[in-house]
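Example 5.3 — Glutaredoxin
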Amino acid sequence: MRQIRFYTKENCPLCDDALVMLDLLRHEYPFDLEIRDIYSNDKWLEKYQLEIPVVQIDDRTTLNCEEISYEALEKALSKGE
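Solution (predicted structure tokens):
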């Protein structure tokens, strides 16, 4: 099963939108989702604070706030099938 790490923070409308897109895609492309709040880890905060939401798929594909769209997520998820 695919592994997705979703880097997020509270009160982030872009993060909320990205999570909805992932939930919609989950039916066609099953995956395990790990949600990581960047404020719970200093390394994540330093690395992602200006890029969230960030979606990391199977440690190979990473999409940041400028790249995330329904189409981009679907394309990235379909690559591993």
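Remark. Strands lie at 2-8, 31-37, 54-57, 61-63.
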